[in-house]
Every structure is written in structure tokens, then in C-alpha cells.
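Section 3.1: Structural characterization of target chains.
Under the original work plan, the team committed to producing a structural model for every single-chain target entering the pipeline before any wet-lab resources were allocated. The record below documents one such target. The sequence was received from the expression subgroup and is listed exactly as submitted; it comprises 461 residues.
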Amino acid sequence: MKGTLAAISALTTLGMVASVNAAPRELKWTDESLRGAIWEQPVAATVSPIIYMNNCSTGCTITPGSNNAPMNRSSIPNQTSNVPKYTGSAAQWNQLVACVRATYAAYNVQVVTDRPPAGTNYHMAIVAGTPQSVGMQSGVLGVSPFSCGYIANSVSFTFANVIPSNISELCWTVAQETAHSWGLDHKYDNRDPMTYLSGGPAMKTFQNQAGSCGEYSARQCQCTYAGTGASAMNSHALIMSLFGPSMPATPDTMPPAVSITSPAANATVVAGFEVTANITDNVAVAKAELRIDGNLVGTDMAAPWSWSAPASVGQGSHRIEVKAYDAANNSATGTVDVVIGFVCTGDGDCMGSEVCLSGHCVAGPDMPGGLGTPCADNGECTSGQCATSETDNYCVDSCDPAKADSCPSGFGCVLAGNTGVCWPGSGGDGSSGGCNTGGDGGTVLVGLGFAAVLFSRRRRR
């Protein structure tokens, strides 16, 4: 881009993804006569490889005018606007930053979360607020200035508070809006971050392939690109021409970390039980799969990682596997074994020495590792939970303290933090004190009858 082409031929592109119920997208040219202008390689000195992801942790005040990221000035709002902070959790923010970095990993682009020092040129990607924060209609997920060329010190917006926990959608939007400021049009390819189309991979990558521009149908590109004209666009080639390849780096060979948080190992569960997992990765988690006895049950493309087991999974022992993949296709698996017990209304509905707990049969006190049997650690209990008082260690299982008949005869449901466990000989209303279940294979000592801050932890593998 030469001279003031960005200021002259600037337009506004609403980068909304198709899976969100969005208002129609708008293109706002300041000079309609420049539609179809030639995309020009900018002067190298004006190009900055820095994307500053700003979550407006203390709020962002944006003034209207020509784009100037260091001055918090943007061509998007028509008046001074206050953008509230990102409402997602710190963990979700970190996951989003990692995803954007992975999307741009092939290029000499730096994604930072601290504002660069004074005198530095950079693109500011605001990832916070809602469209109304800058005077736009509801249903818009992102917006960026657009030109048939590179806009220096541009400011783009991803309205993350619309869907703060949908990491894949937000990552897609941040990538699309930043690239709009470099002169990339929408691409009619659901594998590419520049797409409007739903479907395709959750982790989108800039495609090294010339293809039609367009939103929900193919059309001519609004800029004329070198080598493809207005008939097609190669997003990868354009970004590579601006920034070049990333510096040589060690390939990502680290797999995700997978921990099944529910159910506990060796737990007795009922049909249709929930499976939840905690999954982290050094770059980004791409997807996770649930298998029961080797059969694929479901695939999640973004956190929270949770599934419901099919009601058709029958009585008996079952192997639960959660397999996670990262962007480099490294994988790791978490595994637990569970038992689906018989449905019951009382001990008489159960077989042998089993007892009825919260509507399903579990191993009773006369069975090895059963409810109320002495234990030294979680691994000795069929429930995966060993609890301790000042003098006794027993295998326990979860119960509802609000229900008087939640536990079998001879047991009471005592509070353990925000949940309850069946404890031998308790009155059943939690009045005899609290106990605690152990994590990492051990027990935690909390005396019955003593006031204490209690919490429940499950065994992890």
C-alpha cells in the first residue's frame, strides 16, 4: 500500500461467523470509486508483525477517528465508546490467546497480551465487550477496518462478551478481523479463518490455495490481488508476503494433559451418567473424543469437555476413555473404569451384599471395598473415595444431604464441602460433623464433630 490508500479506500467489514445468529454483514466504503482497487505491497517500514490482544481488563475507552492503536483511536465507532472487560475466565482467556498464536504460528507474527512500549507500531485486537459497546447492532461478533492494502496501527474488535466461553468461535473471529486490516477479503472456504461458512474444522488455518471470495456464496473479490486478480484470493500467500515465515522453532511434540474429573475411577454409576474432563495443552486443544468400551460416543471441539453416556450402555463394568488432540495432532488419553449398577428403591432390590444408594446398587459393607469398609486410600474403594475422621477411615460414596433417605440403612449423609458422603452410623442430617474424601490416591484428615472448611476431591490418574 502506498501513501494514504488505507484512509482513502477504507471500508468496514463485519466479520460474523455463520453459526451465530448475526445481522447482515455491511461494507462501508468511504470512496465507492475505489472498489476493486489493486492490493499493493506496503512499504516495509510501515508493517508491524505485532498483534496486541487487549481484553480491556480495566475497560477500554476508544475515540473515533483514523486508526491509531497506540492512541486508542478507531475508525469503527462514531463517538467515544467504552468497552467493558472480557467476561470469560482467566483460563478461557489463556486458551483463546494460545489458539490465536497457533493460527498465526506459520508466520513471523507476534501475538502479545501486554501493550507494546511507546513508539511501537502494532495492530490492536480488542477482545471484549459487545457490539453495542461501539454503537453497532446486536448479533455482530466482530468488526474491522478494511482496505485493499495494509492499514497501519489498525484497531479491530471481537465482541467476546457475546460468547465468552466459545473459544473456537472467538479464535476464528480474532484471526479474521486482524487479517481484514491487512487487506484480506472474506473467503468462500470453511477451512479458512476468512470464511463466513459454518462447519469445517474448529481450528481454522489460512489456506495456501487460491479460492473464491464470498460470504454465503462465491463472488468476485473486492480487491484485485497479485497473481489471482479479483477472481480469487490466497490468504496464506498474502500474509506470507507481508510478514514472511515464522522463525525456526522446535516442533510442538507435547501432547495435551487429560484428567477425567467425573465419574471417579471404579465408581458405580447409573445409565446415562455424565462424563467430564479437564484438558490442557501448551498451545491449544483442537478436539476431544469420548469412547466407552472402545466405541466412539461423541466429539467436542471446545471446552467445556463433557458428554452424556448413552442410556443404552447396560449393566456391568465399562471402560471410559477421553482422548484429546492438539493443533499439532499430538494426543493423550485419560481412562477410568466404572460399573453401572442396578436401579433400586431399597436394599432389597439389589443383589447379594449390595446396598441401595441414591437409586442405584453399590457394593455394601460386607463386600471388599464396599461402602463403609475400612480403607487406607482411594484405590481400596469401589467408589474411588476413601474418607477419614480423626479415628476412622471408610470407603464412602456421594449422596444428597437434602434427602433423608439418600444413604442406605446404617449410614447418614454428612456434608463434605458443597456435597455429601454416606458415613457409617451418622444421623443422616450432617449434624455429627464432616468428613473429607482424598485426592491423588490418599485421604485427608478432617475430624468428625469439628468445625472445618471441607471439600471433596476425586482420585486422579
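Residues 362-437 form one domain.
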